[in-house]
Amino acid sequence: MTVTEAPTTRQQNRIDTEARIVSAARSLLADGGEVTLRAVARELGLTAPALYRYAASHEELVRMIAIAIDGEVAGKIAAAAAAQPADDPAAQLIAACVEFRQWALGNRKEFALIFANVDVECIKEYDGSSGMVFSGLLVALWEAYRFPVPALADLEPGLAAILEVPDAPVDPAMKGDLAGLVWTLTQGWSRLYGTVTLEVFGHVDARLVEEGYLFRSMIADQAEPLGLKPELDRLQDLIGQLLVAG
Amino acid sequence: MTVTEAPTTRQQNRIDTEARIVSAARSLLADGGEVTLRAVARELGLTAPALYRYAASHEELVRMIAIAIDGEVAGKIAAAAAAQPADDPAAQLIAACVEFRQWALGNRKEFALIFANVDVECIKEYDGSSGMVFSGLLVALWEAYRFPVPALADLEPGLAAILEVPDAPVDPAMKGDLAGLVWTLTQGWSRLYGTVTLEVFGHVDARLVEEGYLFRSMIADQAEPLGLKPELDRLQDLIGQLLVAG
DNA sequence: GAATCATAGTTTACACCGTTTACAGTTAAC
DNA sequence: GTTAACTGTAAACGGTGTAAACTATGATTC
After folding, report:
1. Interatomic distance A111 CA / D12 C1' (Å)
2. Is the reported ipTM for this assembly greater than 0.85?
């Protein structure tokens, strides 16, 4: 039911108001305030029940925030990768990982909302979300370095069957001989997500987080399976530069 | 100010009531109910303000729950390890890891409360907490297998300085030549925590969680640095048994 | 043993929360 | 121009954490 006509003023108002609602709610979340319907409404000069014209419940409002943040972080990651030379996919992948980590450490509430939430579900991964970005970067890395891709035949049959039909969108190149890249991607995501989560929630010596020792050690672990061992020194230098810059 | 006298009935009542408060609150959390002051009080036949004699605020009540759960999970992990043969520290460590993972997947709310919380802080690590358990298991493993311990001199100076003075309690054996075990412990904890958190919050293909592929892959990664490569087959069998049993 | 005090509970009240209902003004559509 | 849909309001309900005043009772002291 796409509207092809020029948008009426009411339609435009609705879009604007919805954007302002999400924006105000995000500001409250980031500034440590409580994201309540009344607080959000107050920010826009409205009353709380008015928000029910835009979200069916408080939980749905939170979900709207989460989706907005999710999209933004995916964009930031993609931008960080794009800021590296086009012919250096290793630097692009590293920059993306660093960006994700720095964003998480600088926006813990938002990170917890999206990536460590048991209540608000259904923040389904979609194209443009972080997973898709890393998927593309990994394929580009393989095209440049041709690191060994795990053959599905060498994996446990049950595992191979799962990898053949990924449940989240991945780069379309990850089929056939490259289906094993889904496993590489999953394991890499597990390392990145796990390390960043540990750093964000602080269940580890804080000094190892501040100085980035844990994060850099994780990256170093990843170098070998990704064929980046010879590049590790310059990549660690790059991480150092990105950490002080961001 | 320790009381050496026999406890008066009032002191005993206070202890009992506090225990019942924490127990009722934990039941509410586990059963999906809201952990509100009124709900907890109702469970004991009290009124909400009465709880302020035991916890200065709702947040402190939640912290009391968290500490209780933290202690219990540490006990479960230690018990799972103790259930393995005394002369098989590898099996003990594996059993502890599996127990932690299974508990987390079966008690997601509680796991999130303790291990993925940005609000309730100050759940400081203490003796008897999970970290201490894994610390002891790792030392026992080293005594049996003598896997290579990273020498502090080979690490970055800043990292070595941190490892020399751990901020969380670790096994007293982790000094001198064995100070590098703190780094091994930290990296291992990073893998376990990261993988389990990813599994609990579901930011990965659910089928990889159900079948345990992600978890077993993480364990396999750990085998080499811990000198368990020759034992990996039987340890994977052990994991399979423990997963179907628990 | 009586008087005193600290403790552990109550009742009441307040401000705030998410949510529903009924209503009013404005815009869009026929 | 009339009708309908939309977007806001005010009022109210039950529930929340929390503070204050009050009360019964176990513990302590003379």
Report:
1. 37
2. yes
Q: Which long-range contacts (CB under 8 A, 24 or more apart) does A103-108 make?
A: A103/A73, A103/A76, A103/A77, A104/A196, A104/A197, A104/A199, A104/A200, A105/A196, A105/A199, A105/A200, A105/A209, A107/A30, A108/A200, A108/B118
Least CB–CB distance from B187: residue in A162, A211, A217 = A217
Q: Distance between CA B208 and CA B204 in Å, rounded?
A: 8
- pLDDT per residue over A27-41, tens digit each? 999 999 999 999 999
Chain A hits for B121, CB-CB cut-off 8 Å, are 202
What pTM did the predictor assign? 0.95
The residue written with tokens 């049996």 in the block is B144
The nucleotide whose C1' lies nearest the CA of B56 is D18
Backbone angles phi, psi at B4, to 5 degrees: -95, -20
